[in-house]
Design a protein that fits this description.
The complex is a heterodimer of chains A (188) and B (128). With 188 residues, chain A is mainly alpha-helical. Helix content of chain A is 75%, strand content 0%. Chain B is 57% helix and 8% strand. In chain B, helix 1 crosses helix 2. Classes of the chains: A mainly alpha (188), B mainly alpha (128). Chain A binds chain B through residues 9, 11, 17, 28, 30-39, 49, 52-57, 59-61, 63-64, 183-188, and chain B through 26-28, 31, 44-47, 49-50, 53-54, 56-57, 62-73, 75-78.
Chain lengths: 188, 128
C-alpha cells in the first residue's frame, strides 16, 4: 500500500469562471464567484448553479441601480428629442403616417436598455461617461436596423442624428442632476 | 431612511440564518442554513442573494468584504451582520409567529401533538 496521493485542489475551469465572471456585475462579482467556487462539486452542477444564480444576481443588481422615476424622465426626454429632430428635419409626416411613434419606441427602448445595463455594470463615476456612450450605441443600432430591417428603422438620418445628440445632452444633464446611487459597500 | 416594515417568510428565514451564524454569515453558509430552516422546501442560492440585497436596502442588515481565502479561489466573502433595525424586525416577526402558534395550539392542541412525525412541514419551536 503506497502513500495516499496528495489532495488536488478542485475548482471550476478558469475559462468557465472567467466567462461567468464577465456576466456578473462587478459590484457583486467577487463574492458570487467565490461562493460558486466554494460550492463546486463537479462541472455540470457548477454550470447549472451558475445558470440559475447569475440571472437573479443581475436582476437584483438592476433593481438596486435603476431608479424608475429617472428612467421615465430619460424616456420622455429621448422621445421629445427625437420628435424635435423630426420637426427640425421636416419629417413630421413620418411620425403620423408611418407608425413613426412606434418606430421611435424601438430606438428609445434600446437606449433605455443600454442605460439600465450601464447602471448595473459600471461604477457611479463611470456611468456619467458611459451613459452618452450607451445613447451612441442606440444610434449605431438604428443604422444597423436601417440596413437589415428598414421597415422598423427611422428613414431620416438628420432626424436620428439631431434627436440622438439632443437626447444624449439631456440624458447626461439629467444624470448629473439625479445620479443613480450605489448602495453597496465594497471595502474589506 | 429605512423603515421597519413586515417581513416576508423568506426574509425571516434569511435574517434567522444571519442571527444564528453570527460572524460566519456569508452566501454559502446563509444558503445552507436557510435550506435547513425551510426543509423540505429547497431554496436557490440566487434567491438568497436577491433577499440579502433587499434586506440590505431596507437597512436591516449590513455587509462587508472579508479577506480572500484559497478555498474560494482567492476570492473574498461578503459577510453580513444584523443591524438594530433587523433585530427589531425579526423580534416582531418571531412574536407574531408565537402568537399564531399559541392561537393554533389553543384550537388544535391535541391534534398538534399528533402532527409531529406525520407532518414534518409544521415544526415550529414549542413555546415554554
Amino acid at each position: 500500500m503506497g502513500a495516499a496521493p496528495p489532495k488536488m485542489e478542485s475548482g471550476p475551469p478558469k475559462v468557465m469562471e472567467t466567462v461567468i465572471g464577465i456576466l456578473i456585475p462587478p459590484a457583486c462579482r467577487e463574492e458570487v464567484l467565490g461562493d460558486l467556487h466554494e460550492r463546486y462539486d463537479g462541472l455540470p452542477r457548477y454550470f447549472l448553479e451558475a445558470c440559475f444564480t447569475v440571472p437573479m444576481v443581475i436582476a437584483s443588481r438592476i433593481r438596486r441601480t435603476t431608479e424608475p422615476g429617472l428612467l421615465l424622465l430619460e424616456a420622455m426626454v429621448l422621445y421629445l428629442s427625437l420628435t424635435a429632430g423630426a420637426l427640425v428635419s421636416g419629417q413630421t409626416h413620418f411620425l403620423t403616417e408611418q407608425n413613426g411613434y412606434s418606430k421611435l419606441a424601438v430606438l428609445i427602448a434600446m437606449a433605455l436598455l443600454a442605460l439600465v445595463l450601464v447602471d448595473a455594470y459600471a461604477g457611479v463615476a463611470a456611468r456619467l461617461i458611459l451613459a452618452p456612450a450607451a445613447a451612441l450605441g442606440a444610434l449605431l443600432f438604428q443604422f444597423r436596423l436601417q440596413a437589415s430591417n428598414p421597415e422598423l428603422a427611422i428613414p431620416s438620418f438628420r432626424m436620428v442624428l439631431f434627436g440622438s445628440l439632443a437626447g444624449m445632452l439631456l440624458v447626461t444633464a439629467l444624470r448629473w442632476l439625479f445620479a443613480p446611487g450605489d448602495n453597496r459597500t465594497t471595502g474589506a | 431612511m429605512a423603515k421597519s416594515d413586515s417581513l416576508g417568510q423568506f426574509e425571516q428565514l434569511v435574517l434567522t440564518a444571519i442571527l444564528h451564524l453570527k460572524d460566519d454569515a456569508y452566501g454559502v453558509t446563509i444558503h445552507a442554513k436557510v435550506e435547513e430552516l425551510a426543509r423540505p422546501k429547497a431554496a436557490s442560492l440566487g434567491a438568497v442573494y436577491v433577499t440579502l440585497d433587499r434586506l440590505e436596502d431596507k437597512g436591516l442588515i449590513s455587509s462587508r468584504l472579508s479577506d480572500p481565502t484559497p478555498e474560494r479561489g482567492g476570492r473574498s466573502k461578503r459577510c453580513y451582520k444584523l443591524e438594530a433595525l433587523g433585530e427589531r424586525a425579526l423580534q416582531e416577526s418571531a412574536a407574531t409567529a408565537r402568537r399564531v402558534w399559541e392561537a393554533v395550539a389553543e384550537e388544535w392542541g391535541k391534534e398538534i401533538e399528533a402532527w409531529g412525525p406525520r407532518r414534518p412541514k409544521w415544526n415550529p419551536v414549542r413555546p415554554k
